[in-house]
Structure prediction request, 504 residues.
Amino acid sequence: FRKLGLSLAKDDIVQLKEAYKWIIHPQLSEELGVPADGKSLFEVSVVFAHPETDEECHFLATACPDCFKPAKNKQSVFTRMAVIKALEKIKEEDFLKHFPCPPSSPKNLCVALEIQCNNGAVFVAGRYNKYSRNLPQTPWIIDGERKLESSVEELISEHLMAEFKAESFNFSSSGREDVDVRTLGKGRPFAIELVNPRRIHFTAEEMKGLQQTINNSSDKIQVRDLQLVTRSAIGRMKEGEEEKTKTYSALIWTDKAIQKEDIAFLDDIKELKLDQKTPLRVLHRRPLAVRCRIIHTMQSEYIDEHHFRLHLKTQAGTYIKEFVHGDFGRTKPNIGSLLNRTADILELDVESVDVDWPPTLDN
Amino acid sequence: RICVITLAEAHPLLQSGKTIKSINYQISANCSRLQNKVSGKSKRVRLFDLGAQFLTELAPLCRISSSDGEEYTIYSCIRGRLIEVNENILSNPAILQEKPSTEGYIAVVLPKFEESKSVTQGLLTQKEYEEVLLKRLNSSS
Prediction:
């Protein structure tokens, strides 16, 4: 090519799969009677085999041995990345010693081995409220036996799976609450990935209708702001889990009597630093560590000599129950140590999850 | 099932008149229950990764000396992995006697998943324990 005075940039070289698409799209389009959209969520993957050239690139291993290191997971050492790396490294003269340029014409056509159709996943987001003190986030099954009926994710996803005609779902939320904790206020953001959905087009009205169906089907949970979102949504939601504040309401019991004056000082404490060791109740599945968390503000509501309600605004990731009862002294300070009594938590509600995503819809 | 090891209510150290002089987690020349290994890719500080310390029933956890010269060895009493020892009682021995069943705990042990049931079955319920104490009282009088 150089002799002809033409210079080719890397981008000028057409990728094989692009050329294939240019050829096949019009043919599919004509056959099926619909326009072809190369950027749609519907994916057809075709696997080709061409045995005569399978080992064509193996010569690169002798020329560039350090590009091809065997790794446990890989079937073959000649991965696409490794070959590209070697091609960049090898000098033109060395390459030409082993391989003709331009390459010789193949003798056989390649064969289509496998054709698979797949619908790209769609994402539905919203916020959920939880009104039951007996509902786990995910199904609670031990040794094949379901310990508690249903779960937050099943109650929300059931209807979505049916309408979107999806194969399976992945539910994630901006943090989560215990089985016995309610989620009030505007609720907690969640996102559901619907895998291989057969139906993906829904109008805003239809989404509203879906939301209503879910809300009519259960009084244990309610959803709002139900909408279709992009994959990047998950990132925004997880951001909230680590960074944003949460507010709670806790019903607290004390062993020794308290008067209104005894708890008033809690309202004045700002930015209280806690050192929380991994709570005993989760130690069987989490590593032992110490986490520093901040209680931004507190507001107490005296009930009687042994009870009061505490509203708190805390940093994400704070264990509230442990802040109240102290977890054998492993969360310091705690309500017990602050009040110089033994305290325990009777009820906990999430009042708000301060993440401004997903966008609020006028429901 | 996570287990918290504490002193039983009838333990001599919890009877009136006893003052704790010292608590020692150094069991032998080579073994301290306080070994502090910081490991792992955790972005938070890892405390006491005592994963290497597997305990059997008779493994000593610590030795406690009282001011009257007596020394008591506290044993694990169950099989399991030592997760954590309570450092709070080192800095504040009083809580061992004031709150033996909560802040004054000795250690946290995690039995092997397969052994969880057999470990629990080898223990006494509160009621059974009280019966044992009653029998002990009657036989000595």
User: Anything to note?
Assistant: Chain A touches chain B through 14 residues (CB under 8 Å).
